[in-house]
Amino acid sequence: MPLPVGLSTVTVTGTYKHPDGTPMTGKLLFTPEPAILTSGAYGTLLLGTIEAALDVNGAVTVALLATDDADVTPVGWTYRVQERWHDAPGRSYPLSLPAAAPAVDLADVAPTAAAEGEYVVVTGPQGPPGSEADAEAYTDAAVATHAADTTVVHGITDTAALETSSGAQAKVTAHSGATDPHGDRAWADATFATITVVDTLNGTVTTLSGTVTTLNGFLDDIFARIAAIEGGTAFLAGVNSTGPVRVIGADLSVEGTGKGYRFRRGGGGLDLEATGADLIISNWSGGDFTGTQRSYFRLSADAQNAQVAGKVEFVDGLYGATRHVLDGAANQVGFFGAAPVSKPTVTGSWADGSAGESLAAALALLGLITDDTTP
After folding, report:
1. Cβ burial 336-372 (10 Å sphere, 16+ → b, else e)
2. Which of 72, 84, 107, 279 gets the most CB atoms within 10 Å of its CB?
3. CA 338, CA 325: separation in Å to the nearest integer?
4. End-to-end Cα spacing for the chain
5. β-pair partners for 39
6. How high is the pLDDT of residue 330?
7. What Rg, from alpha-carbon coordinates, does the chain have?
8. Of 60, 88, 109, which marks where a domain is finished?
9. Within the chain, how many helices (H) and strands (E) appear?
10. Considering the entire predicted model, what is its pTM?
């Protein structure tokens, strides 16, 4: 698909042959630099590499976007030309294609190796023919024009305003010797403190030295406290953290007043331990240890004794169906899904069988049996 109508193009041609006249085979790659060009006027992004293959005569013709088109950003870029031959070494060089030269033959602009050093690439079409004398005359005229100090060269109306070496040196000397060349060395309200001002405010230099010594001692104390925190020897009045707290490679202990807790990971398992008092496990109804406190477990410190308070449910999974219930607060039990009940009473006579019926009914009420007996 061709470029949008309105964008300038340059037709590039070239013919490549071996020294014996046989045509070369291969292709030329034209890559814009930078990699992406934009044309807001035509709503187009231009990028990528254009490949132009040589025909059977070793010739190539390709129409390319002009490198100085005003509707393309940036303006004044270049192509990177890469020669890829099947039967000879290739090379790479930059190329500018201004719209003023709508047709360019690569034989006129492609670089050739100089006898010594590097050849600077010509980035446009070849100029009009001339002689070495013409070039020298043009250069001499340009130098003479510039040396004339005219406004055409320097763009100013008064050439006397041009700086001289002696004038510049005088300005530098005056600036260096000025008391306050930038207007910021001393304010009317003495905002910037000088040695004199400090001595006046503090009385004497001795007083100032004492102040510095005090400040140094204060800083030393701060550094000592930071080192103690980092070394683990500091005792802090409290710690507040808004993020996770991790204890790596050690146990976590809460101690004091003859009792404490410890989360120990150094043994064969993971232990929650207490010392000096019974361990009570409870839960509060409020979010910040407020509201109603319900205590569930007591592990005695003076005996191998554990207590459970309240109702204990044995379920098939957390928050799942209840299988067995031991309700210490209500003094009731229930097994195998039966509702918890108080201790049943067995009545009747074994002689007439009424006691057995009563016993079966009591066991069924507890959920221990299913009573499928018949009269």
Report:
1. eebebbeeeeeeeeeeeeeeebbbbbbbbbbbebeee
2. 72
3. 8
4. 101
5. 44
6. 92
7. 49
8. 109
9. 7, 18
10. 0.40
pLDDT of residue 121: 45
Q: Output the DSSP codes for 315-365.
A: ESSTTS-EEEEEETTTTEEE-TTPPPBPPP---S-TTTTHHHHHHHHHHHH
Q: Which pLDDT score is estimated for 75? A: 87
Collapsing DSSP to helix, strand or coil, 206 comes out as helix
Residues 288, 215, single domain; the answer is no
- Residue 83: predicted pLDDT: 93
Render pLDDT for 227-246 as a digit per residue (tens, 0 to 9).
998 888 888 888 899 999 88
Q: What is the pLDDT of residue 155?
A: 59
Tell whether 284 and 317 lie within a shared domain.
Answer: no
**Are the beta carbons of 28 and 120 closer than 8 angstroms?**
no
Do 365 and 351 touch, CB atoms closer than 8 A? no
User: Which two structure tokens, joined as six digits, stand for 35?
Assistant: 């990699």
* 158 within a domain of the structure (yes/no): no
Boundary (domain end) residue, out of 65, 82, 109: 109
> Cα separation of 324 and 337, whole Å?
6
- Residue 246 in domain: no
pLDDT at position 129, please? 62
Q: Indicate the SS3 state at residue 28.
A: strand
Q: With contact defined as beta carbons under 8 Å apart, do 49 and 92 qualify?
A: no
Q: Is 124 contained in some domain?
A: no
Residues 31 and 105 in one domain: yes
Q: Are residues 224 and 191 in the same domain?
A: yes
- Low-confidence stretches of the chain (pLDDT < 50) are 118-122
Co-location of 349 and 263 in the same domain: no
- The rounded distance, in Å, linking the Cα atoms of 239 and 59 is 82
Q: Which two tokens stand for residue 132?
A: 């070495």
Cα gap 160→179, rounded to integer Å: 30
Q: How far apart are CA 50 and CA 37, in angstroms?
A: 14
Same-domain status, 13 and 84 = yes
Please state, as a whole number, how many other Cβ atoms lie within 10 Å of the Cβ of residue 168.
Answer: 10
Whether 14 and 74 map to the same domain: the answer is yes
Residue 56: what are its φ and ψ, rounded to 5°?
A: -65, -20
Report how many domains make up the chain. 4
My answer on whether 269 and 349 are in the same domain is: no
Residue 123 tokens, joined: 């980035």
Q: Looking at the domain assignment, is residue 298 inside a domain?
A: yes
Structure tokens at 293: 């406190």
Q: Domain range for residue 362?
A: 312-366
